[in-house]
């Protein structure tokens, strides 16, 4: 139970409200300590504490020998960084809900259930750490580029995807989001414009908003970004970067086709922009799946990977593979901002990847995803919802809502029943005018009876198409 406000805080809040509402104008002298104590029925010490709080909050200034005077209504922050931070936090509200774990039914979660990933392949390694296993770590700062044996392993794994990269051109990060942050800090400035998938990855939108970077959304189609839309917006804006997720796209689950990949790279070459390719589900996808980095060989593609979606969201390990120049720049930026990443965690991931169990884990996880997809399609048909695509990769299905249904309002109603939904509009850059007609659903939870019951009560059934 929250503690009751002190008398001093109650008095300070009451006076602050009077100042905010203009009842006490700028320059007004507050009551003397004695008069205020009598008026509020408290001691002089309580009034002193209340006035001190008002001084600290910028409402009141003391004048030696003359009392306390109102400084005026506190101005709203106009600092552009403060304003950008507020907008970024607003965009990332969905992320906050995921981190708080306050919902019983988690259709909107971006991660798989913990029992799908953490209960098997990680357990023995974490037990070793908990039991005080020694000899694995050195008590020293690590190289900012990251643990060399893990980078060597990643080099071999990427080679299987036809991405030829030496270990010295792989930078370890604290996940994909940290990789995006480094790229934004290094190469973008307030007022720059970038292109992104639309719908696309909303935490990236929040980071770009925080950096004061303008965004133009490139329409996402079932086989990848729309080449015509990409061309028009690249020409109109002069954007130098395009952020895209090729495989198991978040939020639609769609994957890039080979023909579309070639088109994207031809446009990037002709209009001279860099491509940041997010491959968050790379280990779950076939090595032969079309990847921009494989076709381009990291000349103008910066390739980002992570283990958060496949091993554990708590293991903050990701990586960037890129040209020597880009890796050099990003390594310096990493060193300046966080010094280095966690050698402990990087060693755990290296051990997991090399102990012979990881491939079994991926096979088991893919089986769970496939079964969940089949069950999800059956459930959606039963309750009258249409997926944008029935055959998708990864954890997500992009579900079309009946005409006239507001996704935000539906999400609010679901939250009152402890059901967490991810409204489609948060994945759009212009939330005020763009898509209001979709939900991103996690296939692991679609057949939950509470969700089924909620949808059947709340939504009109759609006619089959």
TrEMBL record:
> This protein's superkingdom?
Bacteria
InterPro entries, per database record? Aminotransferase_I/II_large, HTH_trans_reg/aminotransferase, PyrdxlP-dep_Trfase, PyrdxlP-dep_Trfase_major, Tscrpt_reg_HTH_GntR, WH-like_DNA-bd_sf, WH_DNA-bd_sf
Which SMART domains does the annotation name? HTH_GNTR
Q: Which UniProt keywords apply?
A: DNA-binding, Pyridoxal phosphate, Transcription, Transcription regulation
Return the Pfam families for the record: Aminotran_1_2, GntR
Which Gene3D superfamilies does the UniProt entry name for this protein?
Type I PLP-dependent aspartate aminotransferase-like (Major domain) (3.40.640.10), Winged helix-like DNA-binding domain superfamily/Winged helix DNA-binding domain (1.10.10.10)
- GO molecular function, a single term: DNA binding
Q: Where is the HTH gntR-type domain?
A: 5-73
Q: Which PROSITE patterns match?
A: HTH_GNTR (PS50949)
Q: Which family does it belong to?
A: In the C-terminal section; belongs to the class-I pyridoxal-phosphate-dependent aminotransferase family.
* Protein name as it appears in the record: GntR family transcriptional regulator
Q: Which organism is it from?
A: Thalassospira marina
């Amino acid at each position: 139970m929250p503690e009751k406000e002190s008398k001093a805080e109650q008095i300070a809040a009451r006076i602050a409200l009077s100042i905010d509402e203009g009842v006490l104008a700028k320059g007004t002298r507050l009551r003397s300590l004695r008069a205020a104590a009598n008026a509020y029925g408290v001691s002089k010490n309580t009034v002193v504490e209340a006035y001190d709080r008002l001084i600290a909050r910028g409402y009141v200034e003391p004048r030696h020998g003359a009392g306390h005077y109102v400084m005026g209504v506190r101005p709203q922050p106009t600092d552009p960084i403060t304003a950008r931070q507020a907008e970024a936090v607003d965009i990332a509200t969905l992320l906050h809900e995921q981190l708080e774990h306050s919902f019983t039914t988690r259709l909107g979660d971006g991660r798989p259930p913990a029992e799908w990933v953490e209960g098997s392949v990680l357990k023995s390694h974490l037990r070793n750490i908990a039991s005080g296993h020694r000899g694995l770590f050195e008590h020293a700062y690590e190289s900012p580029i990251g643990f060399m044996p893990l980078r060597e392993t990643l080099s071999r794994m990427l080679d299987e995807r036809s991405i030829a990269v030496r270990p010295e051109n792989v930078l370890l990060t604290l996940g994909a989001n940290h990789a995006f942050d480094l790229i934004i800090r290094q190469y973008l400035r307030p007022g720059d414009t970038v292109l992104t998938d639309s719908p696309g990855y909303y935490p990236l939108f929040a980071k770009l908003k925080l950096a004061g970077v303008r965004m133009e959304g490139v329409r996402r189609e079932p086989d990848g970004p729309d080449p015509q839309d990409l061309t028009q917006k690249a020409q109109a804006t002069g954007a130098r970067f395009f952020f895209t997720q090729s495989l198991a796209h978040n939020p639609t689950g769609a994957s890039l086709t080979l023909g579309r990949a070639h088109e994207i790279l031809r446009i990037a070459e002709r209009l001279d922009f860099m491509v940041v390719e997010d491959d968050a589900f790379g280990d779950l996808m076939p090595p032969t799946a079309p990847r921009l980095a494989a076709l381009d060989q990291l000349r103008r593609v910066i390739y980002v990977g992570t283990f958060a979606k496949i091993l554990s969201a708590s293991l903050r390990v990701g990586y960037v593979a890129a040209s020597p120049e880009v890796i050099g720049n990003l390594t310096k930026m990493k060193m300046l901002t966080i010094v280095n990443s966690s050698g402990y965690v990087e060693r755990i991931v290296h051990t997991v990847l090399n102990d012979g169990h990881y491939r079994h884990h991926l096979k088991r996880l893919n089986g769970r995803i496939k079964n969940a997809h089949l069950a999800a399609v059956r459930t959606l048909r039963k309750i009258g919802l249409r997926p944008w695509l029935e055959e998708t990769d990864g954890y997500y299905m992009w579900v079309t809502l009946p005409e006239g249904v507001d996704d935000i309002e539906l999400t609010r109603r679901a939250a009152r029943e402890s059901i967490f939904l991810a409204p489609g509009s948060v994945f759009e850059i212009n939330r005020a005018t763009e898509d209001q007609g979709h939900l991103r659903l996690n296939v692991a939870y679609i057949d939950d009876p509470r969700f089924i019951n909620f949808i059947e009560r709340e939504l009109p059934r759609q006619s089959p198409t």
